[in-house]
Automatic annotation (TrEMBL):
PANTHER family: THIAMINE-BINDING PERIPLASMIC PROTEIN, THIAMINE-BINDING PERIPLASMIC PROTEIN-RELATED. Its main location: periplasm. It comes from the Bacteria. Keywords: Periplasm, Signal, Transport. The keyword Transport applies. Gene3D superfamilies: Periplasmic binding protein-like II. This is 2-aminoethylphosphonate ABC transporter substrate-binding protein. It is found in: Periplasm. Pfam families: SBP_bac_6 (PF13343). Transmembrane segments: none annotated. Residues 1-32 form the signal peptide.
Length: 391
């Protein structure tokens, strides 16, 4: 079972550079990294090891001998039935190195943020990992504390909070998939092409405000229409006649596209790529173009933050440090079909080469995640109104 089959679904377990060749980057007058604090976080206390530095060779430490750490994470990087996944592999290495036992709990992108919020008077989690804009929501709600991890200075600056409350640990991009048998001549070229009546009840996207990737669709549509929110809401209203209906899960749409029940659905590169090569051979990734006629997407990474009042804060810091280590970042593509967020880490594995080729010629536009977080409630409400979806 692929790690990404459970993406955006809930479960709980206890377990022992985005700078790509071929991507067309858009500039922006605003930094994508935000932060409610105008004071930069303190520099990491431990210098980032040089690339290629020898890994520790000490005997593995006993599980639990170093205490414990609890991480709440958006799903997609762990699988209880398949150990060949990023969290599975990295947690084992982390425990062997430190003796720290990892308690893991997962849910959808918004679900884990909500869980941390519900426990803020008595925090249970030490580390929160989720997708934007939910990590920014956690920051705005006072759920995180500043910490500048080792090697954070190597992470793409647009994916690091200026106030030091979050940073990306695994890179990914918004994508769409289509059924190649139903559309042998290729996918829709533009967002407006999706309005064609031939897609009536053959198109579905996960729900903004519920699923991280679905929220990404809303963000991408606003960008596609030049930042004109009214044009985006008008578009979604028109698209609703083709849309099957709300979906809490993005991953659940993949199988429907593969069988032909759907012709088009949203997703993300990490999930869609691995599943199209292993389980859903009729699915293929595409990126629709906006008003400028250029296919585009944006970074939709997993972002980590240290929970305010974390019961095991010191161990939480160690875990975040580890996920940004050279070895863990190289495993991002090799194991998880994702992208390293450290710009100095250059994978050479075949997965990374294939992902880089996939992204050739695609414009990656910047996102100001703090602005997204500020407009989040009103945007989701406007989407609900446009589509007739109950709030």
């Amino acid at each position: 079972m692929s790690q990404v089959l459970t993406r955006r679904l809930g479960a709980a377990f206890a377990v022992g550079g985005l700078a790509l060749t071929g991507l067309t980057a858009c500039s922006s007058s605003k930094s994508a990294a935000g932060g409610s604090s105008t004071t930069a976080a303190a520099a990491a206390s431990t210098p980032c090891p040089a690339l290629g530095a020898a890994a520790p060779t000490a005997a593995p430490k006993a599980d639990g001998s170093g205490g414990q750490v609890t991480i709440y994470s958006a799903d997609g990087l762990y699988d209880s039935k398949d150990d060949n996944n990023w969290y599975n592999q990295e947690f084992k290495k982390f425990t062997a190195l430190t003796g720290i036992h990892v308690n893991y709990s997962e849910d959808g992108s918004g679900g884990v943020e909500t869980k941390v919020d519900s426990e803020k008077s008595n925090p249970k989690a030490d580390v929160l990992v989720t997708l934007p804009p939910f990590i920014q929501k956690a920051e705005a709600s006072g759920l995180l504390q500043a910490y500048s991890p080792t090697c954070v200075d190597k992470v793409d600056p647009s994916l690091v909070d200026r106030g030091g409350q979050w940073e990306a640990v695994m890179g990914d991009y918004l994508s769409f998939i289509y059924n190649t048998k139903a559309m042998p001549d290729g996918p829709p070229k533009t967002w407006n092409d999706l309005l064609d009546p031939k897609f009536a009840k053959k198109l579905q996207y996960s729900t903004p405000g519920v699923a991280g990737d679905g929220t990404g669709v809303m963000i991408a549509a606003i960008q596609a229409f030049g930042g004109d929110r009214n044009a985006a809401w008008d578009y979604f209203k028109k698209l609703q006649s083709n849309n099957v209906g709300p979906s809490k899960s993005t991953g659940a749409l993949e199988s429907k596209v593969n069988t032909g029940d759907l012709w088009v659905a949203n997703g993300d590169v990490q999930m869609n790529y691995v599943d199209s090569t292993t389980q859903y051979p009729n699915n293929k990734i595409f990126f629709p173009a906006g008003n400028d006629g250029k296919p585009s997407t944006f970074s939709l990474p997993y972002m980590a933050g240290l929970v305010k009042g974390a019961p095991n804060a010191a161990n939480g810091k160690k875990l975040i440090d580890f996920l940004l280590s050279e070895g863990a970042q190289l495993d991002a593509s090799k194991v998880a079909y994702g992208f390293p967020t450290r710009t100095d880490v250059k994978p050479t594995d075949s997965n990374y080469a294939a992902l880089t080729a996939l992204m050739q010629g695609v414009t990656v536009f910047p996102v100001d995640w703090n602005e997204v977080a500020q407009n989040y409630n009103s945007d989701v409400k406007a989407w609900d109104t446009a589509t007739g979806t109950p709030s």
